């Protein structure tokens, strides 16, 4: 057989599908020509009987199927939980006895039978399905659909396959018995590129898409979160043929489904990436070999895993700990961290995966109890507590048990004697370390224990490597873009004879600090991708309500939420103080909507000297701070309390809670900027953060750790981590990248220079203006498709360029032209979505829209109201016509406002010349909303009071909840003699009508803020 990568003939989607099925059959998958749900259910019964060595009677099967497999009340979440956590169900036999029935055998995975079906069709209206859908290829495990593969022909963007599955989950996966809601994994391919992801990524993505523009929180459930498959050397396996031979090898697929998925406490399904699986397997193999060959307690029994920061070490370590704790020879798994704040963060992460799995402990006495409790299988502790326990409990019986000790961020734990204390006390241990930045001879420095200079000397062999270059190539973390900002060198000495301390003092010259703060405030919105803030200045008439004034202030506050947030890293506690006070001074003159919410945090670190390699492990020690520093911190926390209505201070427990609260508010984007010394530069993860401002010398792992706060994947708007450096860190950056990547790392890890992007952008904008002049219709499928692709590329380049200072004033596209092209682009998007929903196969499979990037320049209601005020003020002077046209253009170019266009247009036409525009708008929206809700209730025959309560809840929560009991309470009673109880169809039309209503009024104020 010719490998597909070497084949030269054109390959259609059906050819690709046939080839895939042929390959699966050659790997012992049974092909089933199934076309109906009845056949699917019959096959499921046979498969479960075979797996469980049982024969169901018809009554038993009927009851088991309806109540244990296909309950009408279960959705994707319940069915996923059943497979992952509750795969043994109890069957009640006809004679009243019970028997355990496994849906999947997790102990002996080869007992599970794999089958493959294709072109399974759900007809329109079948089982309540909204539209007809035909699924490409589905893998059945013991008769249940568990992996679904969506194929596109070569040359088509695979993001379209991701979008296609959206349609299935929205329209028909739930139809009939809902067996397709058992799909755990999705695979998407166009033959050349192939990716996989879990059902939760898909499901959450759809939920978030429904939440209109006011969605409170965007999480990592977009296409950017899908995974490549790879071999043990991290070489991607992208071509479908090779993917099928490896990922779909029977043992590989069944291992992924039974061992390498994690169902979190929030019931999200996470599927591990290949490098995480390889590392976990290598650790488990090392434990077994060391046990069999009597090597426990030696360095050969352990090893370390080098996985770059941000690549998901906590998930890997959790899975490793979980699987190791199930090995018959292992008594305990200790997960050791060496900072209180990391202890807190890791514990929360562990707890997210499995409630109570992380028996974290507050004191050495609690640790002692847990070590003596046979039921506490996995324990999280700090290296300090474990060391204290060892010193206080000589000869404890735990030392002779088989203990697996896993160190998180193990590069820190090699310094000092604690590591040696622990390895001397335990007799039968495996010692493993996870690190994103190992210590090599080249960067071991002079500090610490001379016997434990490198990670290898402390932990043994390197078991697996996944560097920053691997992670960026795979798009699992983002590259960095670095701005070196030359502040005027006020007192910045170049003389190498000046000591580091003197040099730092000179760098704190008040003029330099003022300049840096000024630059940061000026460029903050640009670097963090905040949407433009429009000043909605309302002229308050005498006698006008205070409510209006407050509402305007509230609207201004809200405007800052879109975009990302940032950390400002300083060289010392004194520097943090000076910067915080300077921000406070410079922001005094700003209007509330322009002020950044700035926090500050630091504690006493033993190392306030300049060790730039290793960022000092700050604990929560505020007692050691000098009087001035503590007094300042106390007043800064008071400012924070004023901002958020909290009551923290610098006493030890309260300070820990301040840290947790500040960390959470950063993740929720309630805080714009936090000023730090070392805290947050190593243990803090937030996908919403994209910028690090640096006025601090960094080097080696300290530099990579700090930079890596900014490069977590979130969505298509976040394409890189932004580093704004006020010091010349270029040589240090290049050296660190070479050490932790390779000599060519710069080309992958750092964004290309401005000119490379700008040149390409100008070229594409010129092509756009020549080929598609505004005012001329774009006719024909091919031309429309080309326009969408070209404008999508322009949007992607623009998204990168807007963070470069050089781009200001250099855009060849005027704002008005950009707006008109955006409306055209959105017209095509609406048209294609309409065609897709009516199941027309137009050009949909070739087209991907960059709607997330369009939303970035979203025009909001405030801006429209500001234009309405201008319009009203210019009645009759000739300018009003232009402003009126501008309002229409702005609405047309806004993804969220165009569905409300008639409301805005009607309001503009009816606005009176006196009275606050803002109040008139509120009254107008309230009246329209009430009238349209009345009509909807009448048309759909819904229960009025229940429907109003349901809609109020939707506006309050920012989403319409269409599953669960709340929706059934608003539907009218239906005759039990109607087909399907009439319930499915009634619910569908009601949900559609409510969704249209919600989308129309959400985000317009009056009962539902965005």
The end-to-end distance, rounded to whole angstroms, is 57 Å
* Overall pLDDT confidence: 81
Shape: globular
Largest sheet: 6 strands, mixed
Helix content: 40-55%
Helix vs. strand class: alpha/beta
The proportion of strand residues reads 5-15%
**Annotation, overall tally of beta strands:** 22
Count of alpha and pi helical runs: 36
Strand line-up across the major sheet? 1-4-5-6-7-8
| Low-confidence blocks of residues | 1-6, 124-132, 208-221, 490-498, 532-561, 606-610, 839-844, 1006-1010
Describe the structure.
- The protein is of the alpha/beta class.
- Helix content is 45%, strand content 12%.
- The chain is built from 36 helices and 22 strands.
- α18 (510-527) packs across α20, α23 packs across α24 and α26 (754-771) runs antiparallel to α27 (781-801).
- The protein is globular and about 95 Å long.
List keywords for this structure.
22 strands, single chain, 45% helix, alpha/beta, disordered N terminus, globular, 12% strand, six-stranded mixed beta sheet, 1010 residues, disordered C terminus
Q: Which helices and strands, and how do they pair?
A:
Layout lengths: L12 H14 L3 E2 L5 H16 L5 H12 L6 H10 L2 E5 L5 E5 L11 E9 L10 E9 L2 E8 L7 H13 L13 E5 L4 E5 H12 L29 H7 L3 H9 L2 E3 L5 E3 L2 H19 L10 E5 L5 H13 L6 E6 L2 H14 L10 H9 L5 E5 H10 L9 E6 L10 H8 L2 E8 L19 H5 L2 E5 L1 H6 L6 E5 L15 H8 L2 H18 L18 H13 L6 E6 L2 H15 L10 E4 L25 H18 L7 H16 L5 E4 L12 E7 L4 H8 L13 E5 L4 H11 L4 H5 L4 H18 L9 H21 L13 H23 L13 H6 L4 H13 L5 H14 L8 H10 L6 H24 L3 H14 L7 H6 L12 H19 L9
Helix pairs in contact: 1-7, 9-10, 12-13, 13-14, 18-20, 20-21, 23-24, 26-27, 30-31, 31-32, 33-36
């Amino acid at each position: 057989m010719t490998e597909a990568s070497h084949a030269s003939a054109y390959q259609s989607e059906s050819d690709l599908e046939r080839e895939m099925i042929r390959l699966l059959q050659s790997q012992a998958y049974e092909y089933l020509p199934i076309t109906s749900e009845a056949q699917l259910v019959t096959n499921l019964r046979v498969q479960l009987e075979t797996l469980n060595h049982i024969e169901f009677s018809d009554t038993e099967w009927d009851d088991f199927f309806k109540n244990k497999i296909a309950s009408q009340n279960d959705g994707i979440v319940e069915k996923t939980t059943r497979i992952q956590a509750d795969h043994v169900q109890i069957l009640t036999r006809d004679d009243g006895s019970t028997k355990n029935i496994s849906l999947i055998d997790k102990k002996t995975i080869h007992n599970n039978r794999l089958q493959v079906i294709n072109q399974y069709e759900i007809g329109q209206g079948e089982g309540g399905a909204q539209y007809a859908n035909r699924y490409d290829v589905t893998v059945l495990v013991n008769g249940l659909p568990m992996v679904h593969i969506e194929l596109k022909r070569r040359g088509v963007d695979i993001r379209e396959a991701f979008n296609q599955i959206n349609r299935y989950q929205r329209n028909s996966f739930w139809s009939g018995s809902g067996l397709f809601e058992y799909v755990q994994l999705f695979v998407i391919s166009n033959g050349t590129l192939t990716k996989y992801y879990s059902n939760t990524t898909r499901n959450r993505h759809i939920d978030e898409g429904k939440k209109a523009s006011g969605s409170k929180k965007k999480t990592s459930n977009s296409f950017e979160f899908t995974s490549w498959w790879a071999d043990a050397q991290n070489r991607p396996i992208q071509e479908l043929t090779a993917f099928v031979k490896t990922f779909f090898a029977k043992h590989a697929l069944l291992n992924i489904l039974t061992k390498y998925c994690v169902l979190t406490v929030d019931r999200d399904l996470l599927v591990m990436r290949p490098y995480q699986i390889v590392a976990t397997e290598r650790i488990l193999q090392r434990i077994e070999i060391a046990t069999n060959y009597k090597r426990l307690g030696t360095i050969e029994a352990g090893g370390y895993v080098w996985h770059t920061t941000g690549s998901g070490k906590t998930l890997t370590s959790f899975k490793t700990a979980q699987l190791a704790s199930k090995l018959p020879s292992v008594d305990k798994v200790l997960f050791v961290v060496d900072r209180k704040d990391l202890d807190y963060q890791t514990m929360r992460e562990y707890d997210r995966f499995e409630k109570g799995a992380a028996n974290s402990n507050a004191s050495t006495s609690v640790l002692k109890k847990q070590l003596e409790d046979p039921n506490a299988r996995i324990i999280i502790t700090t290296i300090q507590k474990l060391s204290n326990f060892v010193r206080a409990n000589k000869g404890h019986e735990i030392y002779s048990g088989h203990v697996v000790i896993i160190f998180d961020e193990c590069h820190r734990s090699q310094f000092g004697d604690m590591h040696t204390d622990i390895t001397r006390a335990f007799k039968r241990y495996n010692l493993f370390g996870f690190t994103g930045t190992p210590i090599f001879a080249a960067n071991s420095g002079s500090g610490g224990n001379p016997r434990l200079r490198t990670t290898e000397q402390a932990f043994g062999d390197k078991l697996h490597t996944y560097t920053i270059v691997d992670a960026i190539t795979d798009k699992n973390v983002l590259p960095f873009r670095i701005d070196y900002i030359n502040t005027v060198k006020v007192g910045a000495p170049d003389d190498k004879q000046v000591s580091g301390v003197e040099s730092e003092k000179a760098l704190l010259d008040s003029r330099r600090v003022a300049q840096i703060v000024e630059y940061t405030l000026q460029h903050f919105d640009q670097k963090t991708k905040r949407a433009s803030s429009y000043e909605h200045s309302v002229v308050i008439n005498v006698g006008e309500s205070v409510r209006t004034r407050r509402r305007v202030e509230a609207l201004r506050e809200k405007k800052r939420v879109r975009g990302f947030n940032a950390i400002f890293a300083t060289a010392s506690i004194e520097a943090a103080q000076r910067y915080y006070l300077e921000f406070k001074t410079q922001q005094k003159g700003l209007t509330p909507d322009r002020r950044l919410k700035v926090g500050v945090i630091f504690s006493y670190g033993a190392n306030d000297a300049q060790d730039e390699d290793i960022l000092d492990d700050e604990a929560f020690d505020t007692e050691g701070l000098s009087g001035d520093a503590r007094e300042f911190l106390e007043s800064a926390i008071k400012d924070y309390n004023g901002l958020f209505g909290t009551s923290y201070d610098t006493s030890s427990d309260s300070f820990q809670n301040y840290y947790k609260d500040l960390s959470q508010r950063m993740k929720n984007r309630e805080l714009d900027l936090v000023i730090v010394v070392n805290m947050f530069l190593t243990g803090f993860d937030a996908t919403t953060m994209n910028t690090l401002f640096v006025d601090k010398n960094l080097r080696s792992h300290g530099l990579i750790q700090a930079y890596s706060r900014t490069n977590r994947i979130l969505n298509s708007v976040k394409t890189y981590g932004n580093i704004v450096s006020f010091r010349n860190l270029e040589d240090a950056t290049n050296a660190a990248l070479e050490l932790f990547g390779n000599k060519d790392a710069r080309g992958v890890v750092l964004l290309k220079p401005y000119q490379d992007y700008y040149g390409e952008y100008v070229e594409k904008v010129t092509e756009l203006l020549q080929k598609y002049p505004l005012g001329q219709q774009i006719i024909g499928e091919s031309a429309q498709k080309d326009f969408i692709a070209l404008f999508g590329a322009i949007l992607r380049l623009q998204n990168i360029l807007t963070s470069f200072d050089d781009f200001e004033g250099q855009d060849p596209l005027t704002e008005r032209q950009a707006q008109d092209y955006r409306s055209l682009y959105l017209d095509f998007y609406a048209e294609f979505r309409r065609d897709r929903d009516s199941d027309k196969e137009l050009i949909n499979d070739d087209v991907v829209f960059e709607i997330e990037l369009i939303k970035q320049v979203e025009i909001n209601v405030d801006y429209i109201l500001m234009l309405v005020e201008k319009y009203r003020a210019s009645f009759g002077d000739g300018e009003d016509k232009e402003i009126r046209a501008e309002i229409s253009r702005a609405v047309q170019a806004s993804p969220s406002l165009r569905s409300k266009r008639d409301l805005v247009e009607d309001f503009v036409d009816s606005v009176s010349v006196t009275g606050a525009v803002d109040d008139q708008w509120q009254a107008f929206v309230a009246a329209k909303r009430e009238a349209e809700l009345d009509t909807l209730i009448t048309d759909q025959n819904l229960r009025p009071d229940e429907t109003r309560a349901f809609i109020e809840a939707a506006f309050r929560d920012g989403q319409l909840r269409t599953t669960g009991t709340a929706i059934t309470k608003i539907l009218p009673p239906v005759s039990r003699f109607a087909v399907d109880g009439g319930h499915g169809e009634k619910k569908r039309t009601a949900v559609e009508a409510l969704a249209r209503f919600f989308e129309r009024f959400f985000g317009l104020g009056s009962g539902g803020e965005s």
